[in-house]
Amino acid sequence: MASIGISGVRKSYAQFPVLHGVDLEIADGEFVVLVGPSGCGKSTLLRMIAGLEDITEGDISIAGTRVNDLDPKDRDIAMVFQSYALYPHMNVAGNMSYSLRLRRTAKDKIAGIVTAAARKLGLDPLMERRPRALSGGQRQRVAMGRAIVRQPKAFLFDEPLSNLDARLREQMRGEIKKLHQDLGATSIYVTHDQIEAMTLADRIVAMNAGLIQQVGTPLELYDRPANLFVAGFIGSPGMNVLTGRYEGQTADIARLVLDHGPAIPLGRAYPLTDGTPVSLGIRPEHLELSPAGGAGLAARIELVEPTGFGTILHLVTPGTSSIALKGFTLDRAAAGASREVSLGFPPERLHLFVEEKRVEPAS
Amino acid sequence: MSALAPDPRFVSQAPGPGQRSPFLRRLAHASEPWLYSAPALILIVAVMLVPLVLGISYAFRDVRLLNPFSGGYVGLQHFHELARDKAFWGALKNTLWWTGASVFLQFFLGLFLALLLDKPFYGRGIAQALCFLPWAVPSFLSGLNWAWLFNPVVGPLPHWMVSLGLMSQPENILSDPTLAMWGPIIANVWWGIPFFAITLLAALQSIPRDLYEAAAIDGAGGVQRFFSITLPFLAPTIAITVLLRTVWISNFADLIVVMTSGGPANRTQIVASYIFTQAFKKLDFGYASAVALVLLVLLLAYSMLIVLLRQSLLKKG
Question: Class for domain B86-316, per CATH?
């Protein structure tokens, strides 16, 4: 187990830059999730840590040792691939013991380690099977077993659950989290699934277009997104964003004048000059619905998407320049299509962004 | 017509002649698929089976083009002759030598070439195209070309071999009884490498790259990765290509006929070229057919052996 340091790391493919300088410190035993849309460079970063991609610029260190020029096998890391990458010509036991056999570990010791790992993952009855005779979830477990037998300094996961169906993904997510609790090994996990990121991570690293957008605990990213990208990426359904101009220098009159319409009182003053163009974000679950005619923004429920747990509402404000918003409510009775409602914007739930970046209220 | 009269369309017809004899109907049913496939079947029988049966029948008949009175049935006489024919046994030995050396060298050099071409490098497309070029040369032309290359009067090879100290003076190895077989073998290897390179390269490129990455992380070096990933993936392709090439090469007389005609002193005569010599030089079609039949049986036995081996390997795997 070890800490991992990434400083000033860049990556270009033949003049075409994909990572523009990444700095990140990962503590010993931490579970860090790299999350972002496809093409954001998260997998490339992971593969650079693993030693599968050259580092164009910058340094990566594992346990304080610079590993830029080390081969993957000398970095003492283990990786779980999206495709599992199991050796098709070896059975489960063979797949799991391969790295130990290569290191000429004593036979009885290998047997002990592999049996222990298999028991931990519930693979005991499958040890003689070839990968092609296994289901997706079983293959995934074998891939994890192959990683844990070596007791590496760090685990790297490259979208390990993407090929599984939703139910299995949920189950494996729990198993990975439990495994991390048991082993306490430093782990870096790449995913584009924000639920996986939120549920697994000690810290999330949100990436976009080759840059780190925000690093923080899952709830930090949810409660205080650093910019519009993170605001939109974390949370489902995604955050509503309204654009307009800021007005009012004190808490009681501070408000957002929408581009083509009414104003929304902000309840708190922000360190901005009047007329600054701002984006206002509010999560669907934080919109307050009240019967039509109330104090808030008038809107009509256009579409209702029940999820069972709650209901997603597609809301439209009336008028020629109508705004589409999404709401989320647990109150089934309130969620009737084509119902007129009034939307409240609770001040403590509002996120203000100027030029994509978060602005905190003046204290 | 009265309104109550039944509509003639819905009244069952009186039993026709077909229904009265269910046997004929059953026959028609049974023969229906055969009748549909008859054109193709007749074509296959006419084009493949008739010549095969005719050829086999020659082996038991005295068919000599220069003897107008030949054509009679001679039973196993050709085979008795064959058993005492030293040239045939020599040819059989040469066939083993020719096939073994050609397949061995073609396979290993082809595998080497495929592994080289699998790695990305600048100009790989051109290199691939060039490496596959020999395959496009007609075997007859390549035989002529190599015969000239080995000829000290017009070809450079003997002179190069003298310069390298492999030969004391520039001689044609095709006329040296101890070395002559190497001439056609080298030509055959040059001509046949692309076959292995193409098929093995295709198999190599179908191996998922992340397996190599997983192995690299697991700690496998280049050699270990080759033996634990590349080779198991290539094994089925290797088995089938080596089987095919073995059969083709043992039948492949073009290069030998063009380069040495089996000489000197039958030292490069293989069974296939021996058949050619018997049939088209001595014009003894009956004897040639008998030799061909023996070759056919040997190759069939070999193929069956490989197929059985493959089956048992698949069952184990």
Answer: mainly alpha
